[in-house]
Write a structure and sequence with these properties.
The structure holds two protein chains of two kinds. By secondary structure, chain A is α/β, with parallel strands linked by helices. Chain A is built from ten helices and eleven strands. A six-stranded parallel sheet of chain A has the order 3-2-1-4-5-6, sandwiched between helices. In chain A, strands 8-7-9-11-10 form a five-stranded mixed sheet. The interface between A and B is medium-sized, with 34 and 31 residues.
Chain lengths: ~300, ~350
């Protein structure tokens, strides 16, 4: 079966884990990996796995986009360089899946709103953050039953799973996730907290979601909606698991989750890596299926 | 009030930083009014305390379901207190991942002029943006390495050096769990002193869970610290911070200069702070457990509440949290752990 050819930009934890996820896909094929340091572990590994690599950033990829038929690119660099990367690749008709907190395109959480984006033929889709991917489905599972005045999420991440990019830009992570709790989660106000825990052996990614409903929560319907949503997420992240809750106290609904990864690039504790790369892959697959079926055609944008 | 004739610290100058209006918020479940803040801060200012921290217990961005909501915003507290200060500077706490640079800017606009930028003791590299931004605003900027017992002296030295490289003018060893003993403190501060630039100051922030707040702070000064956090009457998380008036008295006996008026500090403690307390902040069964098991002091009241709610003794929950190496900010895991323990023990949970 024909596959859509992909380029991965950024050779850190996320970019490297993406190689494994995309290799497993029936509709996607990883062809290029882009880094800035020829000795980086990610680039070395990508070469060993048969990908073409460049250490000259996106500019090193551009001359090959058309001849190698690249149609989808994943950006796992940083919020600061994403806009420029996206502009250059969109100009060549490449669809951009953004895994940085730049969020210049619409925000995507696959079980909540992926289909909408595919139908609109967006050329840049943002994956928010690992914490957003892990928690926003639950916020949405509550808000689709009853209006939510305020939702707050707490993500605990193993120190070993957090690369230098995220560390140096925690504010962007917090801001992008908070705004997505509103825009995609459906709460009127959102707040995101992140904690990086260095325990050894590393702790599994944990997420707590608190929602304040406007009216007394309908316990039965909300519980049912949350359990259904967990099954949806498990379709692409099998280690997504309810540990405790939902707990109802007045108008507060609390849900306690754990996310185990598949152990591709980093061990299973790094569920945060998996939920991000798996969601991005799932998103790309949806577009790829539409392209392969001839339902959508990617167009080069006007070069500014 | 005679000085010890053999005090080797005679003549040393130490900057005191009061925490009752920030760490003390934890002990009050974040419920301190603007009027109380102004009253306490004015009295501390009058007693000559040079720095007074004023925010939600979790610092900027602290108002949350995770950490509790204070009756007022940080901006309201800071704007009420700052203009009333004759000599003291108002400081704030900023924990990256919870607070943001936007909130720091807003605190600065309200009159805050000093900041503790806090990370877990192994995660200093989550603070470069915030430390640099504080310096850009012209604030007195400290890097604050929390739960410092969980990193060895060489590790603390490396993390402190990072914070200095981002622009921190002071690096703190923060004994969030009140777990350290004087030798632990000396080893960490000594290691920092060896690597930091001579003009970079070192601070110590203690908790009194093993009754060691004062002794540890003196040990810190012996090893090279020149800034000490405490709180009058010890109003702070766990068994409280180093009680500031006790520490000031010991400094006076040893000839260490703090520039504060001891009797005025004693009056603030007795006449203002103690009557504000909802529970007497002291070493009790649970706060002693924090110090013994190395658990974040702020977990105390949350664990007591979870213990009642889920039918598991707070002490057992705290010991389990220590075993799982939970750190500051993971208050959600207190309830999660209590529920998991209740299930394992067959406690029937209320529905």
């Amino acid at each position: 079966m024909k596959k859509i050819k992909c380029a991965l930009i950024g050779s850190g934890n996320i970019g490297t884990d993406l190689i494994y996820k995309i290799l497993r896909s029936p509709v996607l094929e990883p062809v290029w990996m882009v880094g800035i340091d020829p000795e980086s572990e990610g680039l070395v590994r990508a070469r060993a796995m048969g990908l073409k690599t460049t250490h000259e950033g996106v500019d090193g990829l551009l001359p090959h986009v058309l001849e190698d038929g690249i149609q989808i690119a994943f950006d796992a660099t940083s919020a600061y360089v994403h806009a420029e990367n996206s502009r250059k690749l969109n100009a060549l008709g490449v669809l951009m899946i953004d895994l940085t907190p730049a969020a210049i395109g619409p925000l995507c959480v696959p079980p909540v709103n992926l289909r909408e984006h595919a139908e609109k033929l967006e050329m840049n889709v943002n994956m928010i953050s690992c914490a957003g991917q892990a928690t926003i489905p639950i916020v949405n599972a509550v808000s689709r039953i009853q209006s939510v005045e305020y939702a707050e999420i707490v993500a605990s991440l193993a120190s070993k799973s957090i690369g230098p990019g995220t560390r140096a830009n925690l504010d962007e992570f917090t801001n992008t996730t908070s705004s997505a709790i509103v825009k995609v989660g459906g709460a009127r106000k959102g707040k995101a907290l992140a904690i990086i825990n260095p325990a050894d052996p590393p702790m599994m990614m944990r997420n707590t979601i608190y929602c304040l409903t406007d009216d007394e929560p309908d316990r039965t319907r909300i519980t049912e909606s949350i359990l259904k949503m967990i099954v949806e997420v498990q379709k692409y992240v099998p280690g997504y698991r309810l540990v405790n809750g939902p707990v109802f106290e007045g108008k507060k609904v609390s849900v306690f989750l754990e996310v185990a990864g598949l152990g591709d690039y980093l061990p299973t504790y790094a569920g945060n890596l998996d939920i991000m790369t798996a969601a991005a892959t799932r998103t790309a697959e949806m577009f790829a299926e539409e392209i392969l079926a001839g339902k959508i055609q990617l167009k080069a944008s006007e070069v500014a | 009030m005679s000085q010890s004739p053999r005090s080797s610290l005679k003549g040393r100058k130490v900057i005191l930083h009061d925490m009752c209006l920030r760490d003390g918020m934890h002990a009050k479940r974040e419920q301190i009014s603007v009027e109380q803040m102004v009253k306490v801060a004015t009295a501390l200012d009058d007693a000559g305390v040079p720095y007074i921290q004023v925010t939600h217990g979790g610092g900027l961005g602290g108002n949350s379901l995770q950490h509790g909501f204070a009756p007022h915003t940080n901006e309201e507290y800071i704007s009420a207190v700052a203009p009333k200060m004759k000599q003291a500077k108002v400081s704030v706490l900023l924990i990256p991942g919870l607070g943001t640079m936007k909130e720091l800017h807003s605190a600065f606009d309200c009159g805050a002029r000093s900041v503790h930028v806090a990370t877990h003791c192994t995660e200093a590299d989550t603070s470069p943006q915030h430390i640099a931004y504080a310096r850009k605003l012209g604030m007195d900027t400290s890097g604050f390495l929390m739960m410092a017992h969980l990193n060895d002296p060489a590790g603390i030295a490396r993390q402190g050096k990072l914070m200095e490289s981002y622009g921190a003018q002071t690096v703190y060893v923060t004994d969030s769990a009140g777990y350290m003993l004087p030798d632990d403190v000396k080893a960490r501060i000594g290691a920092l002193r060896e690597v930091l630039n001579p003009e970079t100051e070192i601070g110590f922030h203690g908790h009194h869970n093993l009754g060691m707040g004062v002794a540890n702070s003196i040990a810190a000064i012996e090893a090279g610290a020149s800034r000490i956090d405490g709180s009058v009457a010890g109003l702070g998380a766990g068994a409280g911070n180093t009680p500031l008036e006790v520490f000031a008295a010991v400094c006076e006996r040893m000839g260490i200069e703090t520039g504060t008026d001891l009797f005025k500090l004693m009056d603030v403690a007795e006449d203002i702070i103690v009557p504000m307390m909802e529970h007497i902040v002291r070493v009790d069964r649970e706060s002693l457990t924090l110090g013994y098991a190395g658990v974040y002091s702020t977990f105390l009241l949350h664990a007591k509440r979870a213990g009642l709610q889920f039918g598991v003794p707070a002490r057992d929950i705290l010991v389990e949290l220590g075993r799982k190496k939970m750190i500051g900010g993971q208050e959600d895991m207190i309830f999660d752990t209590a529920m998991t323990m209740a299930k394992a023990r067959g406690v029937v949970l209320p529905t």
